Amino acid sequence: MKNRWMTLSVATVLAALTLGASIAEAAGVLTIGRREDSTTFDPIKSAQNVDNWVFSNVFDVLVRVDKSGTKLEPGLAESWTISDDGMTYTFKMRDAKFSDGSPITAGDAAFSLLRIRDNKGSLWSDSYKVIDTAEATDDKTLVVKLKNPSAPFLSTLALPNVSVLSKKAVEAGEDAFAELPTASSGAFTVKEWRRGDRVILEKNPNFWQADRVKLDGVEWISVPDDNTRMLNVQAGQLDTAIFVPFSRVEELKKDPNLNVLIETSTREDHLLINHEKGALAKKEVRQALDMAIDKQALVDTVTFRLGTVANSYVPKGALYYYADNLQRPYDPEKAKAMLAEAGASDLTLNYIVRAGDEVVEQTAVLLQQQLAKAGVTVNINKVDPSQEWDMLVAGDYDVGVNYWTNDILDPDQKTTFVVGHDSNMNYMTRYKNDKVKDLVAAARLELDPAKREAMYVDIQKMAKEDVNWIDLYYSPYINVSRKNVTDFYQNPLGRFFLEDTAKN
């Protein structure tokens, strides 16, 4: 472990040494410190915020979520109509160009929709299988026919992963496009991706709202260690930083050079459980683990009471959130007895933890202590943040804390992804319940809001009964910026409106 920490320390010091020069060379370039590096620029092949939050300013979508994060508004589709039977959507494309100067056509939009549905590498195919056909009747008219009416369909078009891509650019080479897209439809273009260091964006002069964009460019800089990232923004080596640790909020608020930004979010932190690992396959064991964790103590100690206890995978305040969902009482003695009855008295868990993430590391230590009271041995395995995702996909873990923020207004996206048996193995938990799967599919088709809400209430109850994962807490987005940065804003769905941000 010493070698790993030494490597991380050297990397963060080197990053700090290069930050100042980057800013000095381009006063109109906004630097944003974040933990992880990007993983791809192919939107259909990622489900991570580290990618989606960049996609939103590199690519544009047919339908957008507004700045408040509460309603839909036109994007590359300036208008649309829906047939009386809810099966046919006709979109009128606005006059817009890709960054290479080529027109953005209905054909590009149709290509993007069918690609996210059909491409073998798509992580989002389940949400778009409802599409029967997507055709361009002319360059400005896209007609999408569904296999059946779908309540969330319009909302799913605002997902960054279904952004409108250049058919020509992607077909010239998918792998090359994923490394450096040669045509973008959003406010910025990708100039360079220095893996492990930064993504460098430049203003897209051909963006249909180019007059709105005030910055010359943006640099998303990877600074994995929370402490180093905060020091960099305090020293002026970064303009902004995201993922401010709860423990640093009050200190940073006292710095006259900084603005601490606390925004409403759809973030929910949870403990992922690998259902295919030994005793964790038993529902009773997972229920016992849920009962052995004191969520309120976690909120008080780790979030400094900025968070609230979570009782559902649906975030508090989101559409169809069930406020009365079960919240198991903290009872380590009962949990211990349940584990014994399930034949898991000697349970040992491999808990993977993102190194350098202060909150995740604090959570791991607290959960280790709490679970020990129920007789559970927890071995904490700190891993590089870039390795964690691959370990989750491979199933090389027992438990590990992760988080989710909604990307669209409708609950179908997250529900499909975490309990609906999608291509990501229900967000790497390997959770399986055919009744839940069928109800998720049915809720997607139900157009009566009252009936649909009742279905989502049932899904939340069933997920809690099965303990698909352990809900921990809801919390706001907490970011920090230098005082000379204005309108650095993140809406509840996580989108940064960098087209409105300015650096004075």
User: What's the count of strands?
Assistant: 19
Q: In one word, what is the shape?
A: globular
Helix content: 25-40%
- Write down the overall mean pLDDT: 93
Counted by DSSP, the helix tally is 18
> Would you tell me the structural class of the helices and strands?
alpha+beta
Kindly provide the radius of gyration, computed on alpha-carbon positions and rounded to a whole number of angstroms.
Answer: 23 Å
Give the terminus-to-terminus CA distance: 43 Å
Instruction: Give unreliable regions as ranges.
Output: 1-25
Strand content: 15-25%
The major β-sheet equals:
9 strands, mixed
List the helices and strands and how they pair.
Elements: H1 2-25, E1 29-34, H2 49-58, E2 63-65, E3 72-74, E4 77-82, E5 88-93, H3 106-118, H4 125-128, E6 131-138, E7 141-146, H5 153-156, H6 167-171, H7 174-179, E8 188-194, E9 198-203, E10 217-222, H8 226-234, E11 240-241, H9 249-253, E12 258-273, H10 283-291, H11 295-302, E13 308-309, H12 332-341, E14 348-354, H13 358-372, E15 377-383, H14 385-394, E16 399-404, H15 412-419, H16 425-428, H17 434-445, H18 449-466, E17 470-482, E18 485-486, E19 502-503
